[in-house]
């Protein structure tokens, strides 16, 4: 992302994250090991609290290889349920980062 804003899960306040979201900013959040799911849930809650929709996905995953047919079906259903989201939240397990991207 060009001109991406980088923040850290332990130091970014909910108010600051909300201000990024309501300003339609893209940002990358660094997360300590073990806090990735908690960070995604927090960002998702703040986006939805601002009256917007989002889709959460795992960056770099190969759904068929990792999750089999059931995983692919689940991904398709999830994507259909979040058709045309305001934001996408990409969690990257390898780098312990969450990439939040404005889509509209």
Q: What would you note in describing this structure?
A:
This protein has 104 residues and is of the alpha/beta class. Helix content is 40%, strand content 24%. The chain is built from 3 helices and 5 strands, in the order E-H-E-H-E-H-E-E. A 5-stranded mixed sheet has the order 1-2-5-4-3, with helices on one face. The two termini are 16 Å apart. The mean pLDDT is 85.
**What structural class should be given to the helix and strand makeup?**
alpha/beta
Mean pLDDT: 85
Largest sheet: 5 strands, mixed
N-C termini distance: 16 Å
Regions with pLDDT < 50 over 5+ consecutive residues?
Answer: none
Helix content: 40-55%
Number of helices in the DSSP assignment = 3
- The 3D shape can be described as globular
Order of H and E elements: EHEHEHEE
Question: How would you describe this structure in keywords?
Answer:
alpha/beta, 40% helix, 24% strand, 104 residues
Helices, strands, pairings?
Blueprint: E1 5-8, H1 14-22, E2 27-30, H2 36-49, E3 54-58, H3 63-81, E4 87-92, E5 97-102
Parallel strand pairs: 1-2, 3-4
Antiparallel strand pairs: 2-5, 4-5
Helix pairs in contact: 1-2
Summarize the structure.
The chain is built from three helices and five strands. A five-stranded mixed β-sheet has the order 1-2-5-4-3, with helices on one face. By secondary structure, it is α/β, with parallel strands linked by helices.
């Amino acid at each position: 992302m060009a001109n991406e804003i980088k923040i850290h899960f332990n130091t970014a306040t909910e108010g600051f994250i909300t201000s990024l979201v309501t300003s339609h900013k893209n940002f990358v959040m660094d997360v300590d090991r073990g806090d990735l799911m908690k960070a995604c849930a927090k960002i998702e809650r703040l986006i939805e609290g601002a009256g917007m929709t989002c889709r959460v996905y795992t960056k770099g995953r190969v759904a068929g290889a990792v999750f089999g047919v059931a995983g692919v079906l689940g991904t398709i259903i999830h994507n259909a349920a979040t058709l045309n989201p305001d934001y996408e939240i990409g969690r990257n397990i390898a780098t312990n980062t969450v990439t939040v991207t404005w889509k509209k």
